[in-house]
Amino acid sequence: MDVKRAKQILSSSADIDVTFEGTSVWIDELHEDEKMATVHLRGPLEERTQVAIKDLTEEKE
Fold it and tell me: Where in the cell is it found (predicted)?
């Protein structure tokens, strides 16, 4: 994923399915200078981690 699309998803009110290494995640915050994003798993766990934006994938229906 590129930074521009990640920003669009973060600011969207739609529920857009994003995955990291095959696991569904929410994007919490973008760190454009480092090209990183803070994400957490969808579901009951709130553990956050930083990943490279390029490693995020938007799942198409």
Answer: Spore core
